[in-house]
Design a protein that fits this description.
It is a single chain. By secondary structure, the chain is of the alpha+beta class. 49% of the residues lie in helices and 12% in strands. The protein contains 17 helices and 14 strands. Strands 1-2-10-7-3 form a five-stranded mixed β-sheet. The protein has a three-stranded antiparallel β-sheet with strand order 4-14-11. Strands 5-6 form a two-stranded antiparallel sheet. A hairpin with a 2-residue loop joins strand 8 and strand 9. Helix 6 packs across helix 8 and helix 10 crosses helix 12 (238-251). Bound molecules: protoporphyrin IX containing FE. Protoporphyrin IX containing FE binds next to helix 12, helix 13 and helix 17.
Amino acid sequence: METFADDDIVSPKLYADESRLHEMFAQLRARDPIHWTEPSEYRPFWAITRQQDILEIETASDIFLAGQRNRLFTKEEERRVRERTGQASILRSLPTLDAPDHRKYRAIFQEWFAPGNLKKLEARVREIVDERLAHVASLGGTFDFVNEVSLWVPLQTIMMIFGVPFEDGDRLHRLSAQLFNPYDPDTARKTEGHGTAEAAQELFEYFKVHLDSRRANPRDDLLSIIAHATVDGKPIDEKDALSNAVTVFVGGHDTTSATISGGLNALLTHPDCFAALHAGSVEVAPAVEEMLRYVSPVRGFMRVASRDYKIGGKIIREGDAVLLFYPSGNRDESVYEDPNRFRLDRGRFTHLAFGCGPHMCLGQMLARLELRAFYTRFFQRVRSAELAGPTSWLESNFLGGPKKMPVKIQLS
Ligand code: HEM
């Protein structure tokens, strides 16, 4: 049996190999589910791999704070970010805020992402899906599902919500990937270091132009809400507006794309499930939940303990960081039967793909709407689908999913 070292726990390359990654998580859950991890290029942290411990820590949000360290970066990248921005994290936005500010800033977005408002977007999301499927039909045969399909549906949806032109799609996709996947050689910014601060700066410049225009001429889009947002009765400052715009935009598409493509990969490697959806003998909505559990594209967020805390026989000391591994919690054998198998007969279940606690994904209802819209239309039109070559996965310890996925698909 392969054994894993602390450097493996953070290795972007390991995250590109789903079966080794899940073997490592299974070993951690079995042997040391709250594991003190000292990788050579990263500051140490506790690796939290069981579902119940992740839930406990995230819910204790008065003790485990997000502000000091919330994402896994190398020591070198942390130094560069501090040097370039003067602060510990690139963006001062929802994921890095704690109470009471977190609640106040989250309230800015709450109405937009509420089910009632999302319902109004449904028809437009379906149009985006239909256009993409028409494009697939025109390709007639074998193509890369990621670059032709899955990246575009969530990207165009979030661009529609932000009210920015579809022509900017390639550029915004490239910058988002640089920010989220700085360790994958195919997506990283070609610069000294990993370039996350530079990618964020370019996104700031892009959104600043649009925010300024919404301040002068508000429209019916999310950027107008951000441009006119107030906290404690005062307009939010420029840096907060830009940081939150970038966070919601970037958080809002590659995650969902990864679930669309990772979900299809799961279906094509579990033909019984594909056949059940194709025949209409199972519903799309619960299948989407299994895709979220199984793909779990967000690998983990971090928190820092504000006081000593006892959990699972260990003491997490004040100032220690924890890394909450959602994909591991989603394959926890004490919660799911046969966790490494993609199954559509689980009945009702919960999962951690969107995290939990006060930071639980703001866009989860939108993500579900897109995933359901895509798979509903896809199964109405698909005649046959198969993998047409090996899938390659992102080398990323933050956001995973397929990078290239050759498929052969026939639509009616
Ligand atoms: C399948 C798609 C998605 C997945 C798997 C996902 C996953 C996550 C996870 C794991 C978190 C952290 C939760 C925590 O700390 O407990 C998160 C937070 C967040 N997500 Fe998503 N997300 C998805 C789609 C979206 C979409 C569509 C949007 C917006 C358009 C979005 C915006 C955000 C924001 C703004 C946060 C920070 C929330 C906060 O700190 O209060 N996400 N997401």
